[in-house]
């Protein structure tokens, strides 16, 4: 047993042979893999020839079934046979029984198979199949164990059994040939549904057709095994006794094996071809070319067996067998040798060849156990593929992109499986070098995620990275053009070749590619061609020598004419920026590239600056190039591991020119770039600081870090130089969007914190404070900028700490002042609109939502300042206001300052808080002045007057001090007594009048408190109060006296809402003085306007407040004057009501006797009007009698004397009419009146 001894030496190298395991069931084809029941990731069934180890034992020439057929007898086809002699004695009978069983199985196909019959049919069919498979395995075991090699030259008499045994190999060849003829071809079997029925026990039941198909597969494979074992056993050619092949040659085991292999491969090709005709090109590699896993297993078995035989004999390898059959697709002459089984012609012979080779190549990954083995060297078939590729790109035959994509996708997959092949790249490059200007697109299939022209340098690099990936997208057909797939092939081949053989393959490829580009070819490139050009060289740079490739690209670009179209010029810029990005990502020095692209940028920026604004096309073309540069170097800075001096070249004077020429949308892009670069520099600086602070940093590392820090400082200085000066110039303009101006300024502030030495000299020695003064504390900056800037500033704890330690003790007060200004000027941006924009609208709608949110954020941060917390704590405010409404927070803050001042005890503390409070306000009147101009904002005026009113009232005690009183006077002059108010002939604008009406009570109350709190008498303040009341008491009087309208008069509201007595009395006294002066001291016959309304106001005033006799003494003469001189019924009625109310009020306080002041007023009234208006006087006094007759009784002597003086004056004796009127008055006075009447009658005239 030489074979066995040889096999034993191979056991040490075999794959985990387990001779001790018992195989109860011989291996067979089965696709009944249950992945749910522990099948896991197995590709083949446990019963298969691979997983069971049958293939391994065949190749190693070991016992096929070492634990089976060991008994003396064996049951085959239900008959007991002697194990060691059955095949010699009854070989023809056994093969006859095999064909009989096969026939019985075919008969079962005629039975109807459904859920009711499948169980029975499955059992019968499975039994037949197992018997047949068992027999063929017995033949294998018999050959291995019992077949003896006969000496052909022996002339000794032999036993008849030995004669039969000597004939057995020839008999087996004949029987196997006959069996193959009987079962026919796999491709001729009817189509079988490989699905199974599943019973209630989850057991799969298959129809007879399934069993027939798999028995055919078993038979075809086991015949090959038997023939192979026969040749290995006998080591010689075995001739058949009875049969010859079609050429007339004698049939041998070798010819039968080869013929059967050819037939079997043809069958498998034909079955695959049937499936290929139903597959779309886009799904070719995603669709399995095998009907079931058993066909895949058969392919794998054939690859292993044929390759094994080719190593030990002159027989062809598997690929040679397959190539020989596939070449028949391309043979046109009929005299060529054709396979014994005709293969139908494919609609796409080239495509099918690619498809079948790619799928079959993947089977080489499976080892002899059927397990994927990534370390296994896969046999390549490049010779055939090279010829196939040449046919595929034959332009004369008219190649279509949809076909080429599929071909190249297959080629790419083969490059994954096999060793690198430079010839493949060369063949493809010959085609694509001639077609670079082609878009390689399919009209009915747009590329997913890609366009012919890639829009950004980063996306160009991403495309290259995708091409260089080891694993490509399965949907490559739809997502990439054939050119992109070629680039994937190029990358894969070059990387693999350089890994195996160093730089030599790269030099080969480089020479082939570089040689195709010269000046004429570069000038012929269209925009699409340029894109393909850059994609190619970017990929070469990614997989090989980036500096060499980039240098060559720059040389080639010099061939291009400057008059290129803008789109092509833009593409060139994008390509150059992509190379710059690649340098950055590989951490290479960008100096040469940076110099070239930055100079081009500076030149275009200058053209952009001098270009005319009306030349839209030119500006758009220039901006396209400039935006490419900006986007590109932003990516450079963001992806750089560290910055070098060469990075400064990218930030040249071009930006200074560009910023001055940009419009708003363009500026937004440039400033976004600036912010990104600033953030990157600060991030790098922080990392360097952390590394420098580490312990045990050696001198070399420290020197390297210091050099990096110097490079960072150089780049930062360039940013200060080219950008900050521009931002500084835009503080008061609206060219730059507010949010971006604030953000950029905040970033520069943080940069000044981290790297103060890089700031320009005009910001030194404290650049942080200087920048904050420019953008946060300066009163001339737009509030939208300040609010956003301060929000950045306050939320940065590092910056706040830096200010605290910088000696700037007032930074909190300055920040609060800016916050107050931001709120007061929140409607400032809308001043350009008409008043209609602010009438009948919600005030919040007049402010941009973004600014309101920004103010809320600033307010939230400001409430965390220690100084603000101190104010609220001193005011004993337990809960801070909600920052979502900044105006309410400001109100609470102003009130809290006033309360905090009131809680202080010492004079020094009060003086300190007064100074601090004035610092909070700053030039507050300048903040609100724009609202008071010609273009008035209703919302702004409401806010201004309301806040200033709250300020005057809440800070009354502060304004009572000499330090703050000047500000109070200025507020009064600016808001309540401006020049327009003093011009009586001019009406105040309605928005202003409305704002004053709502806030006037606050001013009046505050001024009165200031007046009362003043340490010395303040005649000027009292005068101002009187002027205010004088100006507005009449302006807010209704046209007709109406109690409901008068109740909302701001002067009355000031009295009604006042909380303390002294301010009420002083305010009321001032009001009464103003009324007497303005309405009751008129000259001439015409009374003042709205006299009825002022009388109604006085009546309402006395109803709501306690009347003092002194106040009656002031107002009653005017009331009486109205009754005498004004005949208007409404005036007389209201004057009478006032008279009655005053007399009653005086009666309450004087017990029985009328007050002397009241009597004095009436006495003077009689003296003034008694002679001329005696009847009116008597009528008025009759009214007084109805309220308090004692008042009139006290006036009898005065009345009588007035009567006599009147008669004496006129010199006509007794005035009968007057005496009758006077007697009528006296008649209402009872006895006292009667007595006076008698005295009058008795007196002589």
TrEMBL record:
<dbReference type="GO" id="GO:0042555">
    <property type="term" value="C:MCM complex"/>
</dbReference>
<dbReference type="GO" id="GO:0005829">
    <property type="term" value="C:cytosol"/>
</dbReference>
<dbReference type="InterPro" id="IPR029425">
    <property type="entry name" value="MMS22L_N"/>
</dbReference>
<comment type="similarity">
    <text>Belongs to the MMS22 family. MMS22L subfamily.</text>
</comment>
<dbReference type="GO" id="GO:0031297">
    <property type="term" value="P:replication fork processing"/>
</dbReference>
<dbReference type="GO" id="GO:0035861">
    <property type="term" value="C:site of double-strand break"/>
</dbReference>
<dbReference type="Pfam" id="PF14910">
    <property type="entry name" value="MMS22L_N"/>
</dbReference>
<keyword id="KW-0227">DNA damage</keyword>
<dbReference type="GO" id="GO:0071168">
    <property type="term" value="P:protein localization to chromatin"/>
</dbReference>
<comment type="function">
    <text>Component of the MMS22L-TONSL complex, a complex that promotes homologous recombination-mediated repair of double-strand breaks (DSBs) at stalled or collapsed replication forks. The MMS22L-TONSL complex is required to maintain genome integrity during DNA replication. It mediates the assembly of RAD51 filaments on single-stranded DNA (ssDNA): the MMS22L-TONSL complex is recruited to DSBs following histone replacement by histone chaperones and eviction of the replication protein A complex (RPA/RP-A) from DSBs.</text>
</comment>
<feature type="domain" description="Protein MMS22-like N-terminal">
    <location>
        <begin position="26"/>
        <end position="732"/>
    </location>
</feature>
<feature type="domain" description="MMS22-like C-terminal">
    <location>
        <begin position="853"/>
        <end position="1229"/>
    </location>
</feature>
<dbReference type="GO" id="GO:0000724">
    <property type="term" value="P:double-strand break repair via homologous recombination"/>
</dbReference>
<dbReference type="GO" id="GO:0043596">
    <property type="term" value="C:nuclear replication fork"/>
</dbReference>
<keyword id="KW-0234">DNA repair</keyword>
<keyword id="KW-0156">Chromatin regulator</keyword>
<dbReference type="GO" id="GO:0006325">
    <property type="term" value="P:chromatin organization"/>
</dbReference>
<protein>
    <recommendedName>
        <fullName>Protein MMS22-like</fullName>
    </recommendedName>
</protein>
<dbReference type="GO" id="GO:0035101">
    <property type="term" value="C:FACT complex"/>
</dbReference>
<dbReference type="InterPro" id="IPR029424">
    <property type="entry name" value="MMS22L_C"/>
</dbReference>
<dbReference type="GO" id="GO:0003697">
    <property type="term" value="F:single-stranded DNA binding"/>
</dbReference>
<keyword id="KW-0539">Nucleus</keyword>
<dbReference type="InterPro" id="IPR042320">
    <property type="entry name" value="MMS22-like"/>
</dbReference>
<keyword id="KW-0158">Chromosome</keyword>
<dbReference type="Pfam" id="PF14911">
    <property type="entry name" value="MMS22L_C"/>
</dbReference>
């Amino acid at each position: 047993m030489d074979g066995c001894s040889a096999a034993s030496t191979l056991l040490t190298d075999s794959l985990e042979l387990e001779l001790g395991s018992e195989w109860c069931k011989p291996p067979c084809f089965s696709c009944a893999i249950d992945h749910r029941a522990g099948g896991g990731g197995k590709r083949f069934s446990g019963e298969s020839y691979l997983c069971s180890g049958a293939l391994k034992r065949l190749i190693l020439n070991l016992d096929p079934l070492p634990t089976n057929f060991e008994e003396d007898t064996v049951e085959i086809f239900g008959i007991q046979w002697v194990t060691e002699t059955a095949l010699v004695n009854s070989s023809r009978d056994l093969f006859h029984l095999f064909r009989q069983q096969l026939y019985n199985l075919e008969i079962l196909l005629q039975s109807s198979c459904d859920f009711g019959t499948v169980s029975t049919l499955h059992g019968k069919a499975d039994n037949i199949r197992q018997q047949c498979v068992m027999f063929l395995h017995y033949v294998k075991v018999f050959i291995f164990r019992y077949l003896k090699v006969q000496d052909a030259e022996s002339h000794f008499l032999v036993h008849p059994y030995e004669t039969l045994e000597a004939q057995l190999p020839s008999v087996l060849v004949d029987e196997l040939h006959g069996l193959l003829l009987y079962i026919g071809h796999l491709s001729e079997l009817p189509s079988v549904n490989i699905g199974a029925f599943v019973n209630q026990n989850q057991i799969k039941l298959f129809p007879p057709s399934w069993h027939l198909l798999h028995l055919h597969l078993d038979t075809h494979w086991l015949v090959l095994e038997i023939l192979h074992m026969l040749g290995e056993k006998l080591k010689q050619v075995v001739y058949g006794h009875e049969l010859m092949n079609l050429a007339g040659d004698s049939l041998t085991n070798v010819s039968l094996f080869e013929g059967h292999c050819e037939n079997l491969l043809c069958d498998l090709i034909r079955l695959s071809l049937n499936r290929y005709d139903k597959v779309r090109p886009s799904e070719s590699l995603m669709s399995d070319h095998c009907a079931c896993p058993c066909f895949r297993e058969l392919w794998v078995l054939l690859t292993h067996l044929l390759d094994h035989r080719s190593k030990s004999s002159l027989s062809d390898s598997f690929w040679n067998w397959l190539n020989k059959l596939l070449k028949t697709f391309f043979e046109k002459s009929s005299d060529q040798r054709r396979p014994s089984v005709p293969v139908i012609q494919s609609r796409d012979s080239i495509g099918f060849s690619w498809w079948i080779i790619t799928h079959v190549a993947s089977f080489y990954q499976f080892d002899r156990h059927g397990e994927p083995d990534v370390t296994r060297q896969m046999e390549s078939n490049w010779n055939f593929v090279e010829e196939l590729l040449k046919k595929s790109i034959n332009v004369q035959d008219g190649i279509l992109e949809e076909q080429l994509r599929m071909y190249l996708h297959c080629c790419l997959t083969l490059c994954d499986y096999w060793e690198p092949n430079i010839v493949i790249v060369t063949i493809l490059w010959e085609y694509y070098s001639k077609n670079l200007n082609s878009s390689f697109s399919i009209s009915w299939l747009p590329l997913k995620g890609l366009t012919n022209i890639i829009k950004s340098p980063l996306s160009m690099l991403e495309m290259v990275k995708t091409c260089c990936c080891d694993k490509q997208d399965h949907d490559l057909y739809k997502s990439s053009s054939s050119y992109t797939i070629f680039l994937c092939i190029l990358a894969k081949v070059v990387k693999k070749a350089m890994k195996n053989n160093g730089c030599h393959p790269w030099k080969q490829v480089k020479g082939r590619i570089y040689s195709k580009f010269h000046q004429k070819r570069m000038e012929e490139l269209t925009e699409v061609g340029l894109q393909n050009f850059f994609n190619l060289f970017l990929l070469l740079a990614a997989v090989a020598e980036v500096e060499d490739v980039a240098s060559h690209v720059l040389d080639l670009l010099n061939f291009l004419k400057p008059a290129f179209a803008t789109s092509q010029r833009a593409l060139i810029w994008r390509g150059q920026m992509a190379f710059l990005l690649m340098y950055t990502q590989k951490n290479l020095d960008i100096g040469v590239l940076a110099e070239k692209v930055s100079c081009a940028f500076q030149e275009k920026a200058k053209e952009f600056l001098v270009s005319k604004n009306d030349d839209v096309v030119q500006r758009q073309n220039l901006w396209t190039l400039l935006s490419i540069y900006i986007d590109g170097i932003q990516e450079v800075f963001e992806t750089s591991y560290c910055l070098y001096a060469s990075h400064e070249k990218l930030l040249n004077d071009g930006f200074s020119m560009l910023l001055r020429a940009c419009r708003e949308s363009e500026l937004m892009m440039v400033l976004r770039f600036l912010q990104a670069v600033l953030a990157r520099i600060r991030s790098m600086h922080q990392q360097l600081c952390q590394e420098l602070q580490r312990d045990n940093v050696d001198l070399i590392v420290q020197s390297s870090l210091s050099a990096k820090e110097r490079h960072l400082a150089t780049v930062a200085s360039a940013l200060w130089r080219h950008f900050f000066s521009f931002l500084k110039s835009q503080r008061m303009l609206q060219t730059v969007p507010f949010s971006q101006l604030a953000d950029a300024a905040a970033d520069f502030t943080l940069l000044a914190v981290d790297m103060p030495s890089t700031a320009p000299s005009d910001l030194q020695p404290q650049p942080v404070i200087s920048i904050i003064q420019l953008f946060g504390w300066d009163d001339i900056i737009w509030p939208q900028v300040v609010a956003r800037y301060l929000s950045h500033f306050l939320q940065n704890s590092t910056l706040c700490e830096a200010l605290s330690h910088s000696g700037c003790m007032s930074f909190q007060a300055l920040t609060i002042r800016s916050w107050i200004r931001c709120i007061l000027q929140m409607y400032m941006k809308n001043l350009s609109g008409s008043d209609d924009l602010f009438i009948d609208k919600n005030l919040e709608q007049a402010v941009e939502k973004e600014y309101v949110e920004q103010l809320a954020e600033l307010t939230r941060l400001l409430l965390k300042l220690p100084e603000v917390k101190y104010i609220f704590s001193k005011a004993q405010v337990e809960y801070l206001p909600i920052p979502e409404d900044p105006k309410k927070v400001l109100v609470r803050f102003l009130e809290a300052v006033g309360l905090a001042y009131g809680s202080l005890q010492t004079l020094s503390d009060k003086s300190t808080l007064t100074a601090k409070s004035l610092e909070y306000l700053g030039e507050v009147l300048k903040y609100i002045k724009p609202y008071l101009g010609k273009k008035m904002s209703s919302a702004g005026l409401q806010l201004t007057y309301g806040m200033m009113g709250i300020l005057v009232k809440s800070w009354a005690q502060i304004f009572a001090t000499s330090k703050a009183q000047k500000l109070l006077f200025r507020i009064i002059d600016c808001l309540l007594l401006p020049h327009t108010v003093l011009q009586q002939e001019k009406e105040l604008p309605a928005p202003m009048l409305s704002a004053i009406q709502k806030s006037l009570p606050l001013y009046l109350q505050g001024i009165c408190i200031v007046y009362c709190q003043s340490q010395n008498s303040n005649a000027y303040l009292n005068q101002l109060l009187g002027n205010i009341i004088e100006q507005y008491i009449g302006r807010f009087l209704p046209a007709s006296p109406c109690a409901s309208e008068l109740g909302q008069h701001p002067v009355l509201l000031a009295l009604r809402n006042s909380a303390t007595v002294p301010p009420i009395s002083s305010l009321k006294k001032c009001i009464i003085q103003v009324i007497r002066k303005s309405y009751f001291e008129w000259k001439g016959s015409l009374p003042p306007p709205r006299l009825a309304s002022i009388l109604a106001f006085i009546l309402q005033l006395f109803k709501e407040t306690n009347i003092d006799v002194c106040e009656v003494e002031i107002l009653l003469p005017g009331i009486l004057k109205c009754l005498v001189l004004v005949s208007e019924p409404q005036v007389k009625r209201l004057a009478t009501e006032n008279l009655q109310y005053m007399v009653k009020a005086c009666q309450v306080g004087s017990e029985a006797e009328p007050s002397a002041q009241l009597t004095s007023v009436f006495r003077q009234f009689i003296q003034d009007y008694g002679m001329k208006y005696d009847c009116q006087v008597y009528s008025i006094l009759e009214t007084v009698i109805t309220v308090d007759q004692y008042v009139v009784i006290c006036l009898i002597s005065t009345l009588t004397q007035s009567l006599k003086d009147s008669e004496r004056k006129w010199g006509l004796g007794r005035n009968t009419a007057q005496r009758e009127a006077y007697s009528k008055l006296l008649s209402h006075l009872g006895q006292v009146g009667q007595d006076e009447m008698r005295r009058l009658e008795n007196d002589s005239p």
